Every structure is written in C-alpha cells, then in structure tokens.
Amino acid sequence: MRAPRSPIGNGPVRRFVRREWGPLHLAVRYALTTQRWRAVPMTLGAVALTSLFQIVQNQPWGFRPVQVIGSVKAEDALWISLLRTPLSLFVPALDLPVWGALAQLLLVFGIAEICIGRRHTLLIAYAATLAGTMYARVGIALGPDSVLGLPASDAKMVDTGPSAAVVGLAVYVCWRYRAYWTAGVVTASMVGEVVLKDNLAGKEHIAAIVAVGVLCWITSVRQRRRRDRAAQGRRTGSLSGAPPIKS
Fold first, then answer.
1. Residue 102 to residues 2, 81, 142, 166, Cα–Cα distance (Å)
2. Can you tell me where the transmembrane regions are (predicted)?
C-alpha cells in the first residue's frame, strides 16, 4: 500500500517553505540533536531568572526589591534607567501572563542562541530593549499631538519584559538566515499592533525593529566592504603575477 503523500507536495509551497525556513531549521535541528539542552544554556538561564523574578515580585516582601533593580520608567533619571535596562528584560510585566514571557524567551532566545551565538544574542536583545527605553523618553517629549509621540501619562508606566528583545531578535535572525518573508510578517504584525492598539509597548516594538534594521544595515555594509577588499586583493595578486594572499 502506497504511503499517503504530504499535503504540501513538491509544488511551490514546499519550495517556499524550504527556501524560507530550511537553513534555519537545519541549524536548530542539528544543534538540538547533537547537544540537546546544552545548546541553549543562556536561554535556560534567562527562563530561570525570569521565573525567579516572577516568584519574588509576587511576594509581599519581594515587589519593591525587584522594582528597584529591574523596573524602568521614563520618568526616572536616565542613568537609573540605563542601569536597570539589562535586568528589565527578565522582569515579567505585571499585566501580562508570565507563561507568555517564558515561551517567548524559550523559543526566540533559544533559536537565536543556536543560530547567532550567545554574544550576538545578548547584544541584539539589549540593543532592541534599549531602543524601546530611549524611544519612550523621546515620544513623551514629542507629546501626543505627534505621530511618534506619547502622552505624558506613559512616563509613569513600568516598562519591563522581553517583548522588545524578542521582536528584535526574531527580525535579526530571519535577516541573517534570509527568511525575509518571515521578517516582513513580524514587522507588519507590529505595525498592525500600533494601528489597532496605539500604546507604549507597540511603539517600543517598532523602535526595536528600527534599531535592529540599522544593525543589519551596518553589518551588511561591513560584509560588502570585506568582500570588496578580498576581491581587490585577488585582482592585485593576479595582475602582479604573485600568488593571492590568503587571510
């Protein structure tokens, strides 16, 4: 008896799926198959830290200490916000279910740690979160009459959680692995969020995407310059008759 054929088949849908997510899937699958949970130690640490903050801030004695070390508000002094921003990634938002933050960390941080490494994951996550934090101050300064502005009441809002970092990492990883349609869908969904629900979180997500887009552009320019220098070196070596120099 012949086995049932895949509903995707061998048509354009399957080719699109392979082209869009094939390299990303292979990288994640290989790492998890060969190393299992050892492939994502930083991600597991982030999940554990977020869970710890959630438990502590819900204790009568723990709310204030967590706010002191990881709560960011636009009305705070800038230096205080900058000191608290790294840990604010791992402090769950009080008005959202904690399982959402944990799922985001486990999925997106885990994929990013495997695909771009721990150092780049932390760098992109921090850059995206910092972009959101700085945007909040700029938006409040512009005021609610500006398209990019925010009402003064948003200065008192506690701004914590990994959502901006997750959005930024998702876009960056998709760009690195040429999953451009997926990156576009993530960006479009964030724009739709702002259109449907014009709030601080939505606009911070857009700020995170813009910051990551700038990092992608800088990385692309640097890679192109390295390729141009390498090509120039090969041409120079061939014209002089000397063997090309390998870096």
1. 43, 23, 34, 11
2. 39-56, 96-116, 123-143, 205-221
Tell me the per-residue pLDDT of 8-44, one tens digit each, with 9 for 90 and over: 456 788 888 888 888 999 999 999 999 888 899 999 9
Instruction: Reply yes or no on whether the pLDDT at 228 is more than 50.
Output: yes
In sequence order, what are the residues at sequence separation of 6 or more whose Cβ sits closer than 8 angstroms to the Cβ of residue 173?
Answer: 24, 108, 111, 112, 115, 116, 179
CB count in 10 Å sphere of residue 194: 15
Cα dihedral sign for 94, 145, 127, 228? positive
Exposed, middle or buried by CB within 10 Å (0-12, 13-18, 19+), for 172? buried
At 3, give phi and psi (nearest 5°).
Answer: -70, 145
Write phi, then psi, for 132 (nearest 5 degrees): -65, -40
In angstroms, the Cα distances linking 78 to 84, 92, 96, 242 are 10, 21, 26, 57
Q: List, in order, residues 6 or more apart from 197 with CB less than 8 Å away.
A: none
- Tokens 């723990």 belong to residue: 62
